[in-house]
Amino acid sequence: MSLYKGRGFTDSVNPGYGGTTFSSHQVYGSDSDTFSIRQSVFNLANFASYKEAKATVAKSDALLAKDNISLISRVTGAYLDALQSTENIQYSQAQQASVQSQLSQAEQRYKLGMGTVTEVNEAKANLEDVKAKALEWVSNLEYSKRMLESLSGVYPEGLQLLNVEKFPLHAPEPDIVDQWIEKAWENNPDILAARQDIKVAMGEITKNRAGHYPTLDLVASRSYTSSDTNYTIGSTYNSTDIGFQLNIPIYSGGHVDAAVLQASTKLDQANEILTVQQRTVEADVRKYFNAIINGISKIQALEESVKSNELAVVGTQKGYEAGFRTNVEVLNAQEKLFAAKRDLAHERYTLIYAQIQLKQSTGVLRDADIQEISDWLSVKSVN
């Protein structure tokens, strides 16, 4: 669309007639206004550019969704790490109490002549080892809290530990991995973004190929002109023109073909990237799906291991008090028990995070999933 407005002047000098020296010197004014509009009827390049723009916006939306999902996953992972460190600290405190009790017994037996100094030293060494590990877990807890602060802007003063009674052990739903893979191909942000890159590349091919195609425009104009010469005093002219303008390219010197070839190469690259993304996502989905299935079995086995080790500690302690078990055996039994408890806690949090990662890889991780995890936590907070 264009608008033109102008004013013109004509300077007219007329010599006299019959050899006389009379001449006429006059200035005439004129005004003109023109309004014109052009509407594309067929332009393949413009249509391709429009589709490219839509694909670019869709890709941006997919990448934004990826960032949101990634943030949810990272916050959840940091929180679970903090919970695991907190439980390890609690187990360490309980183990310190057990070893301290064992040390007191060893010292008492030594004073009574029933034990040896070696038993006392072994208990002391074990106690120091437990204290050293506790310091490492305290450091890990502080790191996890700082990570949470960097992600959320709030330093967590209290943490709600996992309530084992509320924590369900069930396979993913659906329980067929291929269905999760299909869901991932439909929703994974990386795959969606790669598909949009293909659309952009296809649009670029069409846009460059359009250099061989004609363009058709609808053109309309409206003009108004007024003139004040001696012959047209007070005259005005109005004109309206409507028509089609067809432009047909003849020869572009090979530029169009070269541009199409270059765009085709980008399309091949985009297709390769999509294939790689699909394979990567499929591998991730299978990995996290199997991690959940195997994690459930590990947790069930470790729960039995904890029960067995609890009985073993009791039996070994009684045997030590009866004189046919050594102090080292008691300390080893205690270490195995608390190691089993730490492993069990680790597998529980690993299972929870595997569920998060499965949904993240599939592209369906939402705030509601985090709320579900929150429902598994205890009401009471610990520092």
CATH class: Mainly Alpha
| Distinct helical segment count | 7
Second-tier CATH architecture: Up-down Bundle
Number of strands: 6
Please list the strands of the largest sheet in the order they lie side by side: 1-2-4-5
Estimated structural class: alpha+beta
Low-confidence residue ranges: none
Question: What is the H/E string?
Answer: EEHHEHHEEHHHE
The description of the largest β-sheet is: 4 strands, antiparallel
Roughly how many Å apart are the termini?
Answer: 69 Å
Helix content: 55-70%
Do you know the CATH topology? Answer: Outer membrane efflux proteins (OEP)
| Average pLDDT level | 87
| The number of domains | 1
Organism: mine drainage metagenome
Protein name: Outer membrane protein TolC
Keywords: Cell outer membrane, Membrane, Transmembrane, Transmembrane beta strand, Transport
GO molecular function, one term: efflux transmembrane transporter activity
Write up this protein.
- One of its GO terms (molecular function) is efflux transmembrane transporter activity.
- InterPro entries: OMP_efflux, T1SS_OMP_TolC, TolC-like.
- Keywords: Cell outer membrane, Membrane, Transmembrane, Transmembrane beta strand, Transport.
- The radius of gyration is 41 Å and the shape is elongated.
- The protein has helices spanning 44-111, 117-152, 177-187, 189-209, 255-322, 327-362, 367-375; strands spanning 2-14, 24-42, 159-162, 215-227, 235-247, 377-382.
- The protein contains seven helices and six strands.
- The chain is α+β, with helices and mostly antiparallel strands.
- The strands form two sheets. The chain has a four-stranded antiparallel beta sheet, with no helix packed on it. The chain has a two-stranded antiparallel sheet with strand order 3-6.
